[in-house]
Backbone:
């Protein structure tokens, strides 16, 4: 797989924001998108408290973050 890891995180955020927008939700949001790095399943949660996003790919060693 080529490309800078930050590019993959940016693509993950774009996919999540494409589904839900960029504003803080009124209730926590839990969902899944295709992982831009490995094409597996990327699970995420958007906090209603501060709008931060947590994400983790099902593929071991792939994308994972917490704001």
Residues:
């Amino acid at each position: 797989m080529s490309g800078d890891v930050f590019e993959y995180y940016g693509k993950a955020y774009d996919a999540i924001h494409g589904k839900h927008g960029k504003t803080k939700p009124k209730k926590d949001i839990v969902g899944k998108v295709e992982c831009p790095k490995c094409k597996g399943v990327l699970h995420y949660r958007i906090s209603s408290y501060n709008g931060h996003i947590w994400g983790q790919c099902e593929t071991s060693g792939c994308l994972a973050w917490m704001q």
